[in-house]
Amino acid sequence: MLYPMLAIVVGLVVLVWSADRFVDGAACTAKHFCIPPLLIGIVIIGFGTSAPELVVSAFASLEGNPGIALGNAYGSNITNIALILGITALVAPIAVDSQVLRHTLPLLTLVSFIAAFLLVDDFLSRFDAVVLLLVFSALMGWTIYQGMRDQRNIIPDTLSQEIELDLANPMPLRFAVIWLIIGLVLLIVSSRLLVWGAVEVAQSLGVSDLIIGLTIIAIGTSLPELASSVIAARKGEHDMVVGNILGSNIFNTLAVVGIAGAIHPLAVGHEVLTRDVAVMLALTVSLFVIGYGRGGKHGLITRRKGIFLLSCYVLYTLWLVRSVFLTA
Questions:
Q1: Are 86 and 309 in contact (CB under 8 A)?
Q2: Could you say which of 30, 92, 155, 222 would form a disulfide bridge with 35 (CB–CB 3.0 to 4.6 Å)?
């Protein structure tokens, strides 16, 4: 089991590193072709931070491992809210913008309920996948349209300025294209290595690949969100923290699961709906309570609330461990 474990570690490290290089190369290439910074931020950087989940789930589906494909997506959503938001709140309390509570969070909640409804029959068909991808395409189109009309409605000024600053002196086009290609190739190679290692470890330990996907792979592929959220919190850019996490969860729920299901229809264990999706929904809805301050106004995700979220993650992980022993 040494080589599969090594494959997981190496795969995760290379996956995160290559995703970062891919984003850098793609953003600089787009800048050379005069694509507006807003679109670079929404499309390229937005896709790039979720590239690990997307590529891993796509290859897992292609190779007939639905547990990893779905566990990675839904496990990443749980990790984003309970673990990453919890850790970030411990680093610095997070102010929740009222726009997030009025628009983004209700949208994520609706998307999550749509995903749950499509899994009621314990099967993700290509039709279900197409529904998810159509919803995602509509949201992306609307976001871009609104962003071009009024940048402030979609992306905070601080983030817009940061993108402008980062791309003020982009690397030469040839180097940008080279990094783009290298990042993409390594994303694919590391994803295949990670999926192989995860399947081998799951078989050796006698646990389902779903459990591996919900835990090890979900945490590993969420590392970009953790890094960017902690850095943003330390800089006081609270909109980026919550927006990054909620946006990533929308992407995972619609695009990652949708692409995996479109590649190969997935038979879904009933526990995915009753345990994992249920926890994901509960955490999402809890953000309404956590995000609002007294008097119904937007408030802070304090360190105490961060401890609550981390406690939820620990309890969920213990639930997964218990399920492993019960099925052993």
A1: yes
A2: 30
Q: Specify which residues 298 forms β-bridges with.
A: 292
Calculate the CA 298 to chain-centre distance. 24
Dihedral of CA 252/196/65/261: which sign?
positive
d(CA 169, CA 279): 44
Q: What is the pLDDT of residues 264-296, one digit of tens each?
A: 998 888 999 999 999 999 999 998 888 775 555
According to DSSP, residue 151 is labeled G
pTM of this prediction?
Answer: 0.83
Residue 5 has pLDDT above 50, yes or no: yes
CATH of the domain at 121: 1.20.1420.30
Would you say residue 324 has pLDDT above 50?
A: yes
pLDDT in tens, 133-148: 999 999 888 877 766 6
Q: Is the dihedral of CA 5, 10, 13, 15 positive or negative?
A: negative
Cα gap 125→128, rounded to integer Å? 5
Tokens describing residue 27: 């953003």
* Alpha carbons 247 and 230: distance in angstroms, whole number: 16
User: pLDDT tens-digit profile of 200-213?
Assistant: 888 788 888 889 88
Please give the share of the chain, as a percent, with pLDDT higher than 70.
80
- Find, among 286, 275, 288, 277, the residue nearest to 309 by Cα: 286
Using a pLDDT cut of 90, give the percent of the chain over it: 29
Q: How many angstroms separate the CA atoms of 119 and 273, rounded? A: 7
Which residues constitute the domain of residue 297? Answer: 2-327
45-48 contacts, C-beta under 8 A, 24 or more apart: 45/163, 46/247, 46/251, 47/251, 48/19, 48/20, 48/22, 48/23
DSSP state of 235: T
How many structural domains does the chain have?
Answer: 1
- For 48-66, what is each residue's pLDDT tens digit? 667 788 888 888 888 888 8
| DSSP β-bridge partners for residue 266 | 124
**Rg for the chain, CA atoms, rounded:** 19
